[in-house]
Write a structure and sequence with these properties.
Elements lengths: L1 E6 L6 H12 L2 E4 H11 L2 H11 L6 H14 L5 E5 L5 H12 L7 E6 L2 H15 L7 H15 L2 H7 L3 E5 L4 H15 L1
Parallel strand pairs: 1-3, 1-4, 2-3, 4-5
Helix pairs in contact: 1-9, 2-3, 4-5, 6-7
Bound molecules: BIS(adenosine)-5'-tetraphosphate (B4P).
Length: 191
């Protein structure tokens, strides 16, 4: 089983690369951002709550996202492996994910961190906001807040995975195909 965490700041290319990796390695893609946007679109009570939080650029509660991921792991327990995109984003989420996977004897194989500077991230997100109309991509202040959330709550997870010997950093600047090749090379070395 191949269980990969695709790690990086907002706009680093996690969603872009996850779609390509899923196809190459026949994995199940879990994007908590996509799952939350689906709840918003469906107008569920969870979606109504999440929409207010995401519009501010802050993280949705650990309880909500851990609950979503736990039920998806349960439903897909017999797959080839998973790509976690945008999850975990806090220490509590990382610990919960380890507990969920280790109890099923299918631990994380590696965390692949995309390295991209803040100026490039902001440029990419605002550009996507113009094309997609995604509310949290259009306002520079919201984007700044999302990056701050990443720096204070998510970036420290690098140490968590480094201590486990599972952190691999990949340059996230370049063409999408170049970055995909670097990620595939890392996976082929690790597995
Ligand atoms: P996400 O949906 O995860 O948003 P994201 O981090 O911006 O996505 P991503 O990083 O995948 O974007 P990508 O690079 O693919 O989360 C949105 C919100 O949901 C969060 O702010 C939070 O509120 C909530 N949330 C989600 N998960 C959560 C969790 N676990 N806990 C709590 N809250 C949670 O794309 C960026 C753009 O760059 C695209 O337009 C793409 O085309 C472009 N791009 C990609 N690669 C490029 C390259 N190499 N060169 C140039 N452009 C590139």
């Amino acid at each position: 089983m191949l269980n990969i965490i695709l790690f990086g700041p907002p706009g680093a290319g996690k969603g872009t690369q996850a779609a390509k990796l899923v196809a190459r390695f026949n994995l199940i893609h879990f994007s908590t951002g996509d799952m939350l946007r689906a709840e918003i679109k469906a107008g569920t009570p969870l979606g109504v709550e999440a929409q207010k939080i995401m519009a501010k650029g802050i993280l949705v509660s650990d309880e909500i996202v851990i609950g979503i991921i736990a039920s998806q792991i349960e439903l897909n327990a017999h797959s080839n492996g998973f790509i976690f995109d945008g999850f975990p984003r806090t220490l509590a989420q990382a610990v919960a994910l380890d507990e969920l996977l280790n109890s099923r004897n299918m631990p994380i194989t590696a965390t692949l961190a995309l390295d991209v500077d803040t100026a490039e991230l902001t440029k990419r997100i605002l550009l996507r906001g113009k094309a997609s109309g995604r509310a949290d991509d259009q306002n520079e202040e919201t984007v700044k807040k999302r990056v701050q959330e990443y720096v204070s709550k998510t970036a420290p997870l690098k140490d968590y995975y480094k201590r486990q010997g599972k952190l691999h950093t990949v340059n996230g600047i370049g063409s999408m195909d170049e970055i995909f090749d670097s990620l595939c090379n890392e996976i082929l070395i690790i597995r």
